[in-house]
Amino acid sequence: MIEPFGNQYIVARPVYSTNAFEEEHKKRDRHHKTFLDHLKVCCSCSTRKAKRIVLSLLPIASWLPAYRFKEWLLSDIVSGISTGIVSVLQGLAFALLVTIPPGYGLYAAFFPPIIYLFFGTSKHISAGPFPILSMMVGVAVSRMVPDTSITTPESFNSSLNGSSLNDRKVVVAATVSLFSGIIQLALGILRIGFVVIYLSESLISGFTTAAAVHVLVSQLKFILQLQVPSHTDPFSIFKVLESIFTQIEKTNIADLVTALIILLIVFIVKELNQHFKDKLPVPIPIEFIMTVIATGVSYGFDFQTRFNVSVVGTMEPGFMPPVTPDVGIIQDVIGDCFGIAIVAFAVAFSVASVYSLKHDYPLDGNQELIALGLGNIVSGAFRGFAGSTALSRSGVQESTGGKTQIAGLISAIIVLIVIVAIGFLLEPLQKSVLAALALGNLKGMLMQFAEIGRLWRKDKYDCVIWIMTFIFTIVLGLGLGLAASVAFQLLTIVFRTQFPKCSTLANIGRSNIYKNKKDYLDMYEPEGVKIFRCPSPIYFANIRFFRQKLIDAVGFNPLRILRKRNKILRKIRKLQKQGLLHVTPKGFICTVDTIKDSDEELDNNQIEVLDQPINTTDLPFQIDWNDLPLNIEVPKISLHSLILDFSAVSFLDVSSMRGLKSILQEFIRIKVDVYIVGTDDDFIEKLTRCEFFDDEVKSSIFFLTIHDAVLHILMKKDYSTSKFNSSQEKDGKMDFTINTNGGLHNREYQVRFFNRFIFI
Length: 760
Hints:
Layout: E1 3-5, E2 8-10, H1 18-30, H2 35-43, H3 47-57, H4 60-63, H5 69-97, H6 104-119, E3 127-128, H7 131-144, H8 164-189, H9 201-224, H10 236-246, H11 253-275, H12 286-300, H13 303-306, H14 330-359, H15 365-381, E4 388-389, H16 391-399, H17 406-422, H18 431-440, H19 443-446, H20 451-458, H21 460-476, H22 478-498, E5 503-508, E6 514-516, E7 523-524, E8 529-533, H23 543-554, H24 558-577, E9 581-584, E10 587-590, E11 595-596, H25 604-610, E12 632-633, E13 641-645, H26 654-669, E14 673-677, H27 681-689, E15 702-703, H28 706-718, E16 723-730, E17 733-739, E18 748-754, E19 757-759
């Protein structure tokens, strides 16, 4: 409230009152809508609402009518052809991560772009296989269909109609992908795409880096052509490495040399593409070039017969019939499905956000979930596997001039041509070449190790999250590692709020700005006033920490002072009855040598009595606890006002509310005025609902700012003794001097009133 001062106004009382809160609450109740009102609004239908629903569910209906054929079509065609070539190769390569024949990767590269064309909101990402997701699907497949038989080099050459073992793997991969899509679709329909916010950038970076290491290790058996059994339990990566090194002498040199040459050339050309990206019209399609050369060399020199290398094998033209998912394995793979659904959305939305910011168009996270979910459902139904988007493939689509998802449609047509017409040309291609191409796409993820140093300099908590996520994922595997990483990340949030960095504030340069005392040199702290700031929510887990930090800041325990004063007061009453106290005009004189607090143990009833407010109404004199006779020993405190800055306190739970009220009562009972500043209306309204206020803790303790509270304390302590000199009013302003005469500030201040506000 505003207190009048002469013809002007001065901030002299709190800005909140209980009556104001009650009136505002009643006003809200009058305008409160019932559940039926909301239901009527949701169920009502109009032409505009129907159009909005259609456009939100089918984003293509909003941008296709505005498509600029003359300006965009040629760019989309060029981009689609380039992206389609990459999609074919990545589909074949990433199928190896799923531990199924490479041909099924083409299905995973064909269906998602078509579905995303109709339902996606990003104009530039390329939907399809992603190595990390392929690895996660492969983990589930290996767990459900372990390689129990001894594999031979010929067993790697299974065609699309291969052995029953491969057929079983295909069914499991399709089932996992289909139910991952169902989870994504459900999350999108329920509008809870916000779950991705629990995956921070540090967590995603650490997880994808560790997953890239898993991919690297899993591809070694194809590069070296070794018989390595699948492992899916914790420490599986170390078991795979042990199996590889124990039979390293059986390495197929032809596969190893071919893979190393491919890797070297791919890395070099990718660096050239990155270095000269501004000068090249399109990136050099090195994966396509190396695939054509490797296929031709393998076919011309008959590597399969001469060097016993593992090749792609028979690629039957056309599509396989849809597969029936195995519902019986759902209970065993539901955790994998949920992890795949979340990671797929997190990766796709992160990449899409980059391009949406670059090209300035909106994204809808829930619609992205629907698009990805439908894509994975269709892909799983037709024997594909779960996908998202690959950064390298999306980079090709955007950098080659792609304007819309028409480029994605063209890329799907390229994949379709390979499936139905020219797939047989890839039959002589070595699997080690596909493995090398898969590793070539991991460079960006493996380079994320550099994030450790950057995060350590910027935020050590984020750095620890990155490192622990990497360790969890490496040791526990992708599924358990992701779950443990999310739990650890949430634990760090609890840790940060449970142990906040509380601080003591002071005035900077006699202004209305208050900052941490440790950060500035020219600081002024009013005498007898302590300003304490808590930078986090206050709840059951940190209320004790808050109390201890507050005690450390003020330099004494208010409950201890209260108990000692009540003990001394009890002895004073006893001495008064014995006639050992003599009342004087200034107080009293004690004839006993020394009165001091004793350290005897008290029972619970006695402690409850000592914790009650100090009552001296029955005494014929007033007690000034800081000016007692020398022979009465009681702790003295110089603090008379405490300001709690709660501007960063977003919520307060019921448990901490009781603790906070207890803290306020302890200070108030020892004659320390407490003020709370910076809270919003909802915070105080909750306190009112929970009956926080009483005769001791009143709603008048709240102020808008720290400066308002300080001015209130100044006026309360020194108003009666202040001398106002040189008063002069001019243009609605009044300048004068406050001389505190040894009071709160012990100095003179120039004060200027501007109509309704006061500044010092």
